[in-house]
Amino acid sequence: MGVKLGILGLGTVGTGTVQLLQDKTGRHPLLQEIEIYRVGVRSLDKPRAVELPTDVLTTDLEAIVNDPAVDIVVEVMGGLEPARSLILKALSNGKHVVTANKAAIARFGAEIFTTANQAGVYVMLEAAVGGGIPVIQPLKQSLSVNRINTVIGIVNGTTNYILTRMQTEGSNFNDVLADAQRLGYAEADPTADVDGLDAADKIAILASLGFGGRIHLKDIYTEGIRQVSKTDIAYAEKLGFVIKLLAIAKRITSAEENGGTLLRGDAATLSLSPLSVRVHPTLVPKVHPLASINGVYNAILVEGEPIGQVMFFGPGAGAGATASAVTSDILNLVAVLKTNTAVPNPLLACGHQEYCQIAPMAELITRFYARFLTNDQPGVIGKLGTCFGNYGVSLESIVQTGFQGELAEIVVVTHDVREGNFRQALAEIRDFEAIESIPSLLRVL
Ligand SMILES: NC(=O)C1=CN([C@@H]2O[C@H](COP(=O)(O)OP(=O)(O)OC[C@H]3O[C@@H](n4cnc5c(N)ncnc54)[C@H](OP(=O)(O)O)[C@@H]3O)[C@@H](O)[C@H]2O)C=CC1
Ligand SMILES: N[C@@H](CC=O)C(=O)O
Ligand code: NA
């Protein structure tokens, strides 16, 4: 008997998934076991790029998740509701779920996984982060024995495309965004991408898997790329950096907590110490592996012990790539159904109950890049240096290279500093008579 799929959504990802499921030659033989039983959509009148028997398409998505014949529900409709309710109903009805919906998982993961565990079924979400890039299953399975210290990703293709073009062409953010929308890379409402919200959803999921606890989205510091200017990209270039929107989840070691130099803590300390989880544009040294990830591509760098660094790279979106992840999840579940084991596989299930402790940004130890516009008076650089010194902020470089009209432009890169100290110094500097404005403030990896 075949495994029956109820697919919710036949847009970009749904269509890619159906195409993959219908094109079985040369792929895994388990595909033969799968029947596309129902596909739920909003409109039956829309032209579709795939052919399906007329009784398969329906607008009654409730009926799909309640149908006893459906074994696996594939949620590729997106959005929060009714996606959340339909996933929960499917799970309560004893169906496994595959989803690409990072927004729903990042917000409702706790109730979704609790419901799945109670019902003894699985929720698979490989497509939710990094599209086609295998990163969820590696974190759950292949790397599960490692003590994860850091997960750093370029997990949003739209913003990486925009930043890459700003870098290579010296263009403005608004011009490239308009172009990206015209070419279909950025959505009509690009808010979730450019304001870092999509990346925050994704790092919440990765952090939860990597560090073994739930993450409250509200605890993730999130800053998008609207403020990144071509001036900063040009300065970064001169200083040996590129600017990337990074999503970072990092275990804070006890040494860092105490403001000391970075040391690897012992197991007991690591399990207790808080995480830093954040999304922001970052100056990345050109020699860093993430610096060369360009265009719509995504990459996720994981650092663990004992493995060291591993990087996952590939297409983070698109019909075929995302369908690859969705369909691999489906195959995993077909294998589960075929082996018919009653005992849940702990490497497929998600059993986290506790929430991770997230450190406030003021406690973050990082380098900073800051650009100041000042009146061109003698002694300004000296005053800046003295004020930073008073707050324990040590400078790696300070340069006055250009002018914006009448105003001199001073760029500072710090050594590792406590963010709270740096901001205290900046508050004082803002009041200097010579300082006109501080147009940019970016963290440095
Ligand atoms: N696009 C991509 O490259 C990637 C997408 N994802 C995620 O995959 C999911 C799907 O994205 P994508 O395929 O791009 O989305 P689309 O907007 O292209 O498709 C959504 C589909 O869901 C259907 N749908 C939406 N809401 C309803 C509703 N209330 N009732 C019935 N049907 C509904 C639509 O029906 P109709 O066709 O009738 O309008 C459409 O077929 C999202 O969670 C997204 O974040 C993840 C990684 C990459
Ligand atoms: N909007 C996302 C695509 C899917 O996750 C992106 O730009 O990366
Ligand atoms: Na993925």
Topology (SSEs and partners):
Elements lengths: L2 E6 L3 H11 L11 E7 L16 E2 L2 H6 L5 E4 L7 H10 L3 E4 L2 H18 L3 E2 L11 H7 L4 E8 L2 H13 L3 H10 L8 H4 L2 H15 L9 E2 L7 H10 L1 E11 L2 H4 L9 H6 L2 E11 L11 E9 L2 E8 L3 H21 L25 E10 L5 H11 L4 E10 L2 E8 L2 E2 H12 L4 E10 L1
Parallel strand pairs: 1-2, 1-4, 2-3, 4-5, 5-6, 8-10, 10-17
Antiparallel strand pairs: 7-9, 7-11, 9-10, 11-12, 13-15, 13-16, 13-17, 14-15
Helix pairs in contact: 1-13, 3-4, 4-9, 6-7, 14-15
Bound molecules: NADPH dihydro-nicotinamide-adenine-dinucleotide phosphate, the ligand N[C@@H](CC=O)C(=O)O and sodium ion (NA).
The site of NADPH dihydro-nicotinamide-adenine-dinucleotide phosphate (NDP) has 25 residues, from helix 1.
Describe this structure in words.
This protein is an alpha/beta fold. 36% of the residues lie in helices and 26% in strands. It has helices at residues 12-22, 61-66, 83-92, 102-119, 136-142, 157-169, 173-182, 191-194, 197-211, 230-239, 254-257, 267-272, 319-339, 380-390, 419-430, and strands at residues 3-8, 34-40, 57-58, 72-75, 96-99, 123-124, 147-154, 221-222, 241-251, 275-285, 297-305, 308-315, 365-374, 395-404, 407-414, 417-418, 435-444. Strands 7, 8, 9, 10, 11, 12, 13, 14, 15, 16 and 17 form an eleven-stranded mixed β-sheet that branches. Strands 3-2-1-4-5-6 form a six-stranded parallel β-sheet, sandwiched between helices. Helix 1 (12-22) links the parallel strand 1 and strand 2 (34-40). Helix 6 (157-169) crosses helix 7 (173-182). The longest helix has 21 residues, at 319-339. The model is unreliable at 260-270 (pLDDT under 50). It binds NADPH dihydro-nicotinamide-adenine-dinucleotide phosphate, the ligand N[C@@H](CC=O)C(=O)O and sodium ion (NA). The site of the ligand N[C@@H](CC=O)C(=O)O has 8 residues, from helix 6. Residues 131, 156-158, 193, 198, 316-317 line the site of ligand LTNE7NMQ. NADPH binds at residue 102. InterPro entries: ACT-like_dom_sf, ACT_dom, Asp/hSer_DH_NAD-bd, HDH, HDH_cat, HDH_CS, NAD(P)-bd_dom_sf. One of its GO terms (biological process) is methionine biosynthetic process. Residues 369-443 form the ACT domain. Its EC number is 1.1.1.3.
